[in-house]
């Protein structure tokens, strides 16, 4: 995928701030620190457009990045951050659930999992929400460079088993360090946008 243009658009704290141009939205969810910002930077080949490791615990903003006047990447707040209060957790839940239920341009969800670890309870909960709202989902097992290649299969299997993943959901092995999986993930993203156009 050739990146001609990539821009940060807005940190939206309420639906009224979401873009209104109806470009398809590809959203990313995952625990804080799992590597979402790094993955966005790798996808769009910018070193630091999506700020890595900034403001952990900001539970209520969706960061919108516009790519090639073609689509938005939408970075959800990271979940599972220990210092977040119960009220903030509830706000996160409300915001995300409303987005998943009502956001028409949302075409694909990337669920980002650290390949080294078993998915957390929050990961399982998020995956179940996605299934409940029938959102097309791609599981991305990132930080692949952190374990030896010989262990990739076993860890991918563990991720799928713990999530009880639908075998039809694609799983992409990724590394923001090496770029592994970048083209494959773009194929999944472009495929999700195209299949939507075929069957309105
Ligand atoms: N080795 C390696 N480190 C990564 C990878 N992705 C993210 N990281 C590191 O993990 C930390 C958290 O990444 P970040 O993108 O800020 O996570 P976020 O909180 O999900 O946005 C940073 O120190 C990144 O450099 C990866 O694929 N490989
Ligand atoms: Mg981040």
Give the % helix. Answer: 25-40%
Overall pLDDT score = 92
Secondary-structure element string: EEHEEHEHEHEH
CATH class category label: Alpha Beta
Strand order of the largest sheet: 1-3-4-2-5-6-7
Explain this structure.
- It is a single chain.
- The protein has 200 residues and is an alpha/beta fold.
- The chain has a single domain (6-198), classed as 3-Layer(aba) Sandwich (Rossmann fold).
- The protein has five helices and seven strands.
- The protein has helices at 36-44, 86-102, 121-132, 152-163, 182-198; strands spanning 6-12, 25-29, 62-67, 71-75, 106-114, 137-142, 171-173.
- Strands 1-3-4-2-5-6-7 form a seven-stranded mixed beta sheet, sandwiched between helices.
- α3 links the parallel β5 (106-114) and β6 (137-142).
- The model has no long low-confidence stretch (mean pLDDT 92).
- The protein binds guanosine-5'-diphosphate (GDP) and magnesium ion (MG).
- Residues 36-37, 52 line the site of magnesium ion.
Q: Secondary structure elements and their pairing?
A:
Blueprint: E1 6-12, E2 25-29, H1 36-44, E3 62-67, E4 71-75, H2 86-102, E5 106-114, H3 121-132, E6 137-142, H4 152-163, E7 171-173, H5 182-198
Parallel strand pairs: 2-4, 2-5, 5-6, 6-7
Antiparallel strand pairs: 1-3, 3-4
Bound molecules: guanosine-5'-diphosphate and magnesium ion.
The site of magnesium ion has 3 residues, from helix 1.
GO molecular function, one term: GTP binding
Organism: Paenibacillus soyae
Family: Belongs to the TRAFAC class TrmE-Era-EngA-EngB-Septin-like GTPase superfamily. EngB GTPase family.
């Amino acid at each position: 995928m050739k990146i001609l243009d990539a821009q940060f658009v807005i940190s939206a704290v309420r639906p009224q701030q979401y873009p209104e141009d109806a470009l398809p939205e590809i959203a990313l969810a995952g625990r804080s620190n799992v590597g979402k910002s790094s993955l966005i930077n790798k996808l769009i080949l910018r070193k630091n457009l999506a700020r890595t490791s900034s403001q952990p615990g900001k539970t209520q903003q969706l960061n919108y990045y516009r790519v090639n006047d073609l689509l938005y990447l939408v970075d959800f707040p990271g979940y599972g951050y220990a210092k977040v209060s119960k009220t903030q957790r509830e706000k996160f839940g409300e915001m995300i659930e409303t987005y998943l239920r009502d956001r028409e341009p949302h075409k694909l969800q990337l669920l980002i999992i650290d390949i080294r670890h078993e998915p957390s309870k929050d990961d399982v909960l998020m995956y179940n929400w996605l299934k409940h709202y029938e959102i097309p989902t791609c599981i991305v097992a990132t930080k692949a460079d952190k374990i030896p290649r010989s262990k990739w299969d076993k860890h991918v299997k563990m991720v799928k088993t713990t999530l009880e993943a639908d075998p039809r959901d694609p799983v992409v092995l990724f590394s923001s360090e090496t770029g592994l999986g970048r083209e494959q993930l773009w194929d999944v993203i472009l495929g999700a946008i195209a299949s939507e156009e075929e069957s309105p």
